[in-house]
Amino acid sequence: MLFSSPNCSVSINKLSFCLQRLNVNIKQCRYKHRTLKKSYETLGLREDCEDEDLRLAFVHLAKQYHPDSGSSRANSMKFSEIESAYRLIQRERSSCKEDNDSLLEVEEFDIKHTAPQHRHFLAYDTGIGTLSERQRRHTRERAQKAIDNVMEHRLQKIQAAERNTLVGMDKRRAGDVKTRFGIDRLVEDLIQESMNKGEFKDLPGMGKPLRDRASAQNPYVDFVTHKLNE
Question: What is the pTM for the complete model shown?
Answer without folding.
Answer: 0.36
